[in-house]
Amino acid sequence: MLANAPDLGKKHADFNAFFMLEHNINLNIEWLADDQGKPDMRYLQDTLPDAFAIINEAAALEKSALRPIPSLGEQGEQLMMFLTLQSRKMDILLSSILQQEDNPSHRYHSKQFGAAGCVVLSDNPIQVGTYAQLKMFIREEAAAIFCYAEVISCDLLPDSDVYQLRLLYTVIREMDQEVLVRCALHLQTQQLRARQQGSD
How many domains does the chain fold into? Predict the structure, then answer.
């Protein structure tokens, strides 16, 4: 399953094409068997848990529904505030439901994540080219992502027995990639604000 050098070089370029945020999120990773083959979008749709389909489609509907409200003027602002609060309540409820999908026996933690891939730490080496099913839980944003990824590097960290894996998303829905972009940027803004407040 080991990729050849030109293919691997392109995968690393794809991995680095998007902004990566240093942030710890919970992931569930299930490694696919070598004989299972490369997952595709049909396979993702067949294996997508209902909870993951619901939360991100609900977020997309909410975004399109709120778009025209600012044109209503002052009344629109009050309505927007009310609907945003109601939306936040729903996000919290859905996030709580999604936490039930978080299986401790498959849990990993990210070192970085972005819209193209993530970096995770592992006690065991994983062969480059191995495919994985990912469930990503971004608790602060009440978001969760289900996708498939491929290991593009596995490096033993200096002076430790822990391996750093770089995972490139190979099958991901466009709406989920947009969620990752939005979450990474929002969390980065919060990190920058916290640093500024700490230095004041």
Answer: 1
| Per-residue pLDDT tens digits of the chain, which is 200 residues long | 455 566 888 999 999 888 899 999 999 999 999 888 899 999 999 999 988 887 766 666 665 655 666 666 666 677 767 777 776 677 677 767 777 888 999 999 999 999 999 999 999 999 999 999 999 998 888 788 999 999 999 999 999 999 999 999 999 999 899 889 988 998 888 888 887 777 66
What domain range includes position 110?
5-199
pTM: 0.81
Q: Give 139's contacts (C-beta < 8 A, 6+ positions apart).
A: 25, 26, 95, 99
Strand ranges (DSSP E) for the chain? 20-22, 26-31, 107-114, 117-122, 131-138, 143-156, 163-171
Domain of 70, CATH number, reads 2.40.10.220
Compute the residue count for the chain.
200
